Amino acid sequence: MWRASVITLYPEMFPGPLGQSLAGRALGDSWALDTVPLRDFGHGRHRAVDDTPAGGGPGMVLRADVVARALDSLSPDGRPRLVLSPRGAPLDQRRVRSLSAGPGVVLLCGRFEGVDERVIASRHLEEVSIGDYVLSGGELAALVIMDACVRLLEGVMGKTESAVSESFENGLLEYPQFTRPRLFEGQAVPQVLLDGDHARIAAWRQEQAEKQTALRRPDLWASYAASHPPPAGRTKKPRESP
Ligand code: SAM
């Protein structure tokens, strides 16, 4: 079973939202979650886990020895060990898919000014960011990573195809979605989606995915276009369906 272990000062934050909906129903069947309370490994009567930054400056830093003891309390089982950090490699769907395909993950949640650099190095932690903004702690980032991984586990999502056509899975953003009513405030569902011609629907969706990606995410579009070269003599533009 896919297993997530979260090292945190706030174990009561888990499973939090992951106790609901798809992930919540699958918890205990397709995946397991345990928390390692960092405070248990703290120093002295007050179980201190942090100290002032060497060299001065604001805030506190999680101590290397405390974090090391917490990490070492988990038996080595080959799971990747990640520390949540705004300095880390940006999380993307490719990394999510590879984490989800493995045995699980160990997630270390930072707090305050972060984690002493030496334990990141000595325990070979992979630094991962969930975006270019600063949260007050790694717990929400850990929940984000687990949610993204768990929904890809076998049997968690209703239909496996829904994962395949989603944003980022093929290097494009997803095409726009519509449902009932057929007319909403003067806007109709595109007729092509109602005609039942699956080849034309697929072509329309591909065209829309390409257009939306080129418009909203020129960075994604550039790498998609580079890996899907147009026929000789033509420049790559978002496709027009027949
Ligand atoms: N002083 C740090 C810096 O400037 O990079 C920010 C520390 S932040 C207040 C406290 C903790 O929140 C971090 O150690 C990390 O675990 C978590 N965190 C904050 N932003 C994050 C992000 N974008 N992605 C992942 N974790 C984040």
TrEMBL record:
InterPro entries given in the database record: Alpha/beta_knot_MTases, tRNA_m1G_MeTrfase_C_sf, tRNA_m1G_MeTrfase_TrmD, tRNA_m1G_MTases_N, tRNA_MeTrfase_TRMD/TRM10
Keywords: Cytoplasm, Methyltransferase, S-adenosyl-L-methionine, Transferase, tRNA processing
Origin: domain of life: Bacteria
NCBIfam families hit by this protein: PRK00026.1, trmD
Family to which the UniProt record says this protein belongs: Belongs to the RNA methyltransferase TrmD family.
Function: Specifically methylates guanosine-37 in various tRNAs.
GO biological process: tRNA N1-guanine methylation
GO terms assigned for molecular function: tRNA (guanine(37)-N1)-methyltransferase activity
Name of the protein this chain belongs to: tRNA (guanine-N(1)-)-methyltransferase
GO CC annotation: cytosol
Residue ranges of the region described as Disordered: 208-242
Record field: catalytic activity: guanosine(37) in tRNA + S-adenosyl-L-methionine = N(1)-methylguanosine(37) in tRNA + S-adenosyl-L-homocysteine + H(+)
Cellular location(s): Cytoplasm
Residue span(s) of domain tRNA methyltransferase TRMD/TRM10-type: 4-222
Sequence positions that bind S-adenosyl-L-methionine: G110, I130, G131, D132, Y133, V134, L135
Keyword S-adenosyl-L-methionine attributed: yes
EC main group: transferase
Organism: Candidatus Raskinella chloraquaticus
EC number(s) given by UniProt: 2.1.1.228
Subunit structure: Homodimer.
